[in-house]
Amino acid sequence: MLVIFIFVDTLQAKIFNNSPFIKITKNEDGLVVDKGVLVDAYIVNGEKTTLFIWEEFSKGNSKNNDGSPYSNNELETMALDYFMKNGSDLLSRDNYTVGISEDVPDLYQDEGLVVIEIRHVNNGNNTLDARYYINIYTGKGFDDLNNDIILAK
Predict the structure, then answer these.
(1) Euclidean distance between CA atoms 14 and 11, whole angstroms
(2) For the chain, percent helix, then strand, then coil, each to nearest 5?
(3) Burial class (CB in 10 A: 0-12, 13-18, 19+), 146
(4) Where do the domains of the chain lie?
(5) Cα–Cα distance between 80 and 145 in angstroms, integer?
(6) Which residues does 120 contact at the CB level (< 8 Å), separation at least 6?
(7) Residues in contact with 113: Cβ distance below 8 Å, sequence separation at least 6, in sequence order
(8) What is the pairing mode between strands 31-35 and 24-28?
């Protein structure tokens, strides 16, 4: 009887792209995974993909290869918008450069965080004004002072 229930559960999950009834839900780096007996359902930004457990999950429907629903350019733009509203005393965006840093502290490597740096450019000097640690899946994060920030809507 249990084998039949697992079989029906697997069929309904695959046919209707549902989560299995028998499941354990995990949140992995901003990615929700409903782990079943024979199928897993991956949920990224409300979109669900149901795969057999032996199939590899590809975040190919995302804008980045890392599964982020945001492109690097969108993350940088959102960070600069946030900074201009909350942290800058200058009105011109032209005075700033924004970039995603390759230097992510080991502590955040596995948490889906990127480091976005905003630098003030003045007379050839390039001074760091802000550093944001942003979760690439949710657009939420924090700054160097551990203040919570939300870039995505």
Answers:
(1) 5
(2) 25, 35, 40
(3) exposed
(4) 2-52, 72-150
(5) 17
(6) 90, 95, 96, 126, 127, 129
(7) 104, 133, 134, 135, 136, 141
(8) antiparallel
Contacts 24+ apart (CB under 8 A), 64-73: 64/136, 66/112, 66/136, 67/31, 67/136, 67/137, 68/112, 68/136, 68/137, 69/44, 69/45, 69/137, 70/136, 70/139, 70/152, 72/100
d(CA 42, CA 57): 8
Count of other CB atoms within 10 angstroms of residue 139: 21
Residue 3 token pair: 């084998």
Q: Give SS3 for 106.
A: helix
Query: pLDDT tens per residue, the chain (153 residues)?
Result: 889 999 999 999 999 988 999 999 987 655 788 999 999 988 765 678 888 888 876 554 444 555 566 677 777 777 877 777 776 555 566 777 777 776 766 666 556 677 788 777 776 677 777 787 787 777 777 777 777 777 765
Structure token pair of residue 15: 């046919």
